[in-house]
Amino acid sequence: MTDAPGAERPVRGSRWSDDSSREALQSIIEAIREVAGFDVVGVSAVRDDGYLQLLCVVGPEDARETLADTLAPLAPLLEALEDAEDWGRLKYVRHDRHALDIERWGWTSDGPRDVPDGVWHPEDVLVAPLHGDDGRLIAVLGLDVPRDGLVPDESKRPLLDVYARQASGAVVATLERERMAEQVRLAAAAADIVRRAAASMSAERTLAECATAIVDGFRAQALWTQLVGEQPRAVHDDAPVAPPPETVAVFERYARALWETQDVAVFAPDRPAPPSRDVADHAAMTAFLGQTHAESLLLAPLGSGPDCLGWIGMSRGHGGAEWSEAEAAMALDIGRDLGRALASARMFEREHQLVQELQEVADYKSHLVATVSHELRTPLTSIVGYLELLAGDPGLSERSRTAIAAIERGSTRLSRVVEELLVLHHTADATGLDHAQPVDLSPLVADIIELNSGPAESRGITVAASLQPSVAPVTGVAHELEHVVANLVGNAVKYTRDRGRVDVRLENADGEVVLTCSDDGIGISDADQQHVFEEFYRSTDPAASQQSGTGLGLAIVRRVVERHGGRIELESALGAGSTFRVRLPASA
Q1: Interhelix angle for 203-218 vs 188-199, to 10°?
Q2: Phi/psi-derived region of residue 300, left when phi > 0, alpha when psi is between -120 and 50, beta in every other case
């Protein structure tokens, strides 16, 4: 927000947010001065504008008074360090090996300039570049005027390097702490804004809640906020002035450009025009300032990630304070924080709307399934009853008996579909269980295996059971868990080739009851494994599609397992069989 300092004289600028960090840094460099044997020690921070700002210095009074808070260009120093002697953490550049204008740093000792080799020259440079955790250069530690008047020889340099390394860690930690303290100070006025923004789950309410706090925090005369594509909002002590559409378009163009460069812009009669694709933009902004009787306007973009979401514009009247670098930085931070809050609010609104729509669809589907299932169950009961009566008539012809058998098979299949739909509807709630109690799975598994033994034997399939003695019970609903076992064992027998093998194992493992059902059947492809637990999903494998089924069995298994706080695992390969493993928490 301010021009870089010139070379003619040292330029001062306040950097510290409080005295504690300055005092801590002062103590560190005073300690360095004592042990390193140099009379002048200073630390300069690297600024974003390419300048070094001297934060703290110890030494003679005239050096302290001259150097404190001065600025010096960083680039010439970095160029000089390319020819520096490497003393470890410290870098030494002889006075005749650099082209630095030492006067730009504002002070040099009055020692003699004509000195022999080995004697310290007032323009010798000895510094330690200090880097943060991310490798970024954040400061420079400088030493000058050795007490013995000599350039440290090779015997002294290792000890100096130790001192420099120890001090560097403390200095970096202090500067990082100061950087955080400065951010806190800059964000003090914005804290209320961020809290208000975070508390709102509506983009419109977020801007409305924060507007007054922004005006108060920045001592602004008026405020305009806008989300791209919407109408701008104005906050004003008296009558708000709405920017005309052409000016709103200018605001948007500037905001997008500023978000790309992560910057803010100030418009005022005595300021040059910020960069723009249209030279008429600045004229439009200046005209708008005249309409609002404002002296200056600060424009900050609102955004999140790569997207510019809008902008905030704050004006000050004639005689108002100049926009400072701190306020510009704060405005940009608010643009980011408020942008993230707005993005979150918009996402919440979209998610809330989507959740409502999905809930409506789920409710409709659940209601539809329950209604259809109940409506089908009554006529199916009548059909089955009358089929039994007809089948008992001794006077029926063979053709009639064949027809009745076909109807019976169809009604049985339809009854199974209705039953599974009702179970699916009943298990739709994945939270909580009604009438849960300890359930011993061993007899339940044994019963299911016995029920499947007939179909298995007719095809020469061996069903082997391994039920570990004293298997712990699980807490749940017995008839729901029965569906899990019945579906897994039934599927294993169904999809195993003739004279194949099915293994069912029940055991305790690490506080869980584990039911494993394996077969050496047709297996499940990788593509089908991604969907096999979905409702109504049927495999595209011809060998699997030949078998009758509703596509609900494994969906019911998954729902029941999840309702009981467990999980189901699948291992399979096409043509190599499948293993389903259900893990349920054992009862305490």
Answers
A1: 170
A2: beta
- Say if residue 349 is exposed, middle or buried (CB neighbours under 10 Å; 0-12, 13-18, 19+): middle
| Category of 50 on φ-ψ map: left (φ > 0), alpha (ψ -120 to 50) or beta | left
The conformation of residue 103, written as its DSSP 8-state character, comes to G
User: Any idea what the Cα angle at residue 198 is, between residues 193 and 204, rounded to 5°?
Assistant: 80
Q: Tell me the C-alpha distance between 547 and 553, whole Å.
A: 13
pTM of the model: 0.39
Any idea of the CA torsion for 74, 75, 80, 84, to the nearest 10 degrees?
A: 70
In contact, 92 and 129? CB cutoff 8 Å: no
Contact 57, 68 (CB under 8 A): yes
Q: Within 13 A of 312's CA, how many CA atoms are on the CB side?
A: 32
Q: How far is 38 from 59, CA to CA, in rounded Å?
A: 9
Q: Nearest-CA neighbor of 297 among 326, 276, 325, 318?
A: 318
pLDDT-above-90 percentage for the chain? 20
- Our CA angle for 107, 110, 115, nearest 5°, is 120
Query: Is residue 582 scored above 80 in pLDDT?
Result: yes
C-beta contacts of 97-102 below 8 A and 24+ residues apart: 98/125, 100/76, 100/125, 101/7, 101/76
CA 571 to the chain's CA centroid: 32
- CA–CA distance, 250 with 267 (Å, rounded to integer): 12
**Is the pLDDT confidence value at 1 over 90?**
no
* Alpha-helical regions (H) of 497-551: 526-529, 542-545
Does the structure show a pLDDT above 70 at 16? no
Per-residue pLDDT tens over the stretch 237-295: 556 678 888 888 889 989 999 999 999 988 877 666 776 656 678 888 888 888 888 88
SS3 content of the chain, % helix, strand, coil (to 5): 45, 20, 30
Domains and CATH numbers, the chain: 19-185 (3.30.450.40), 187-350 (3.30.450.40), 356-426 (1.10.287), 437-585 (3.30.565.10)
**52: three-class secondary structure by DSSP:** strand
